[in-house]
Amino acid sequence: MIFGRSERGKPPVEPVTLKILVAGGFGVGKTTLVGAVSEIRPLRTEELLTEAGRPVDDLSGVEAKHTTTVAMDFGRITLREDLVLYLFGTPGQERFWFMWDELSEGALGAVVLADTRRLQDCFAAVDYFERRAIPFLVGVNCFDGAPRYPVEDVRQAIDLDDHVPLLLCDARDRESVKEVLIGVVEHAMRQAAQRREALTT
């Protein structure tokens, strides 16, 4: 850079920054997803699970889980030179849901992670974003050993509207997560364009 301009004579690109939430049930892979793609060291607010929380934390299907997010996860990914996503992972347990309103402020859209072993755990997040008209997609995290179902069967089980995208993904895999993030940005942009069109007709 020379005097604020690139060496090729082009002005520096000021990237658009977008806020994306990552939500879903307890132990569904939100922290893993943020960590898989973040180009910075993710900010995590994890605490060890304790005996005191055992009566309220349903560990069925995630018995090996030893920590939980108590506030949020935060990461950043540059999709293009002019497009940066800030990722905010929400806490999954009901007693921390009060954080969701704060975290969703100014969000372009959201990813709702689902686990086929505990599909009911994603219902609250789906309802939350539907009620607040925040564009979202559902990413079915394909855990090792978890049952695999056709996408349409999962859509029906969640009672998901036809216009809401549903993708299979692996929260551990950077490229898989990038596809999900691109999907939610594109979906949110389509929703915004449709709203603008409706206002002008």
Automatic annotation (TrEMBL):
TM region(s), chain numbering: none
Database matches in CDD domains: Ras_like_GTPase (cd00882)
Keywords recorded for this protein, A-Z: GTP-binding, Hydrolase, Nucleotide-binding
InterPro entries on file: Gliding_Motility_GTPase, Gpn, P-loop_NTPase
Family note: Belongs to the GPN-loop GTPase family.
Name by which UniProt lists this protein: ATP/GTP-binding protein
Organism of provenance: Streptomyces thermocarboxydovorans
Lineage: Bacteria, Bacillati, Actinomycetota, Actinomycetes, Kitasatosporales
